[in-house]
Amino acid sequence: METPEEAELCFPQLLNASCKKHMRPHSKAMFFYIVLSSVSVLTVALNMLVITSISHFRQLHSPTNLLLLSLAVSDFLVGLFVMPFQILLTEPCWFLGDLLCAWFYFVPFVTVSASVGHMVLISVDRYVAICDPLHYSTKITQRRAEVCVLLCWISCVFYSFLILYDNLIQPGSYNSCYGECVIIIIGAVDLVINFIIPISAIIILYVRVFVVAVSQARAMRSHITAVKLQRSVTVTVKKSELKAARTLGVVVAVFLMCYCPCYCVSLSGYDITIDSSASFFMIFLLLLNSCLNPVIYALFYPWFRDCVKLIVTLQILQPNSCEAKIL
């Protein structure tokens, strides 16, 4: 028969080598499970719609949409693997072993880094489209976009492996007892590479885009000279690019709002307990970004709403459905 002391251990048979269970109130634990599970399912479903839409309909095969497609893949992986992993971390004990603990952390690092990298690529894409529209089609080609996406994923996997190298080679070496899932990284390095540098680049690029967009909007409202009248076709093209820039600007703004709290706490040096409500909120906010991106597309992109209708009604199963006019 177990004693009360043994019942509080993750592995009672290991006695003092086992971690103690840190039990949450049942209502709090159920709240975590329900919220994370619901957002996980919603994230997987919505991003699957984005992936299906862009990959199926040929009219959507553009460099910008390729970036959105790759970002949706990253968000899909967050919903499929990272969020369920967070549910496991809310448990009082870790029973899956040290190796799985290390590899479970590897996937979030890859997906978070990929999301940051894709936001930088999207900012560069909009910068060229707005600030150098005449050369956009020659500078941002489908082939170059594919290469950039591939390099982004490779660099994110390589970076995640480097920053988790000790944890992957010697899993469990930082655990103080059996039943823990603990990793150690150089926080300052991750803060600079995964936050300060890319966020600075995103802000600088979008400030430039905003300045140019405002000047172009003023030019479009004043058709006074004959030169401006001759550029009416170019103005129309720029108008569509400005609309895309605004939409993707919302995506970037939401991304910053979701990612900044977590990294700003790291930047401030303030310590937050891992199993605290504040820690859960910041992690949840960071993961929620993967669910919000498809919602933004649904609100601002008519083509995405049309694609969803075709997918839900199974019209994409019809012959030549990939040639449907979406735009």
Quick structural overview:
The chain has 327 residues and is mostly helical. It is built from 12 helices and no strands. The chain has a single domain (29-323), classed as Rhodopsin 7-helix transmembrane proteins (Rhopdopsin 7-helix transmembrane proteins).
How would you describe the shape? globular
Going by helix content, strand content and strand pairing, the class is mainly alpha
Mean pLDDT: 82
The total strand number stands at 0
Please report the first level of CATH classification, the CATH class.
Mainly Alpha
| CATH topology category name | Rhopdopsin 7-helix transmembrane proteins
Please count the helical segments.
12
Name the beta content range. Answer: under 5%
**How many structurally independent domains?**
1
Alpha-carbon Rg, integer: 23 Å
Low-confidence stretches: 1-6, 224-237
Account of the protein in words:
- There is one protein chain.
- This protein is mainly alpha-helical and 327 residues long.
- It has a single domain, classed as Up-down Bundle (Rhopdopsin 7-helix transmembrane proteins).
- Helix content is 73%, strand content 0%.
- It is globular.
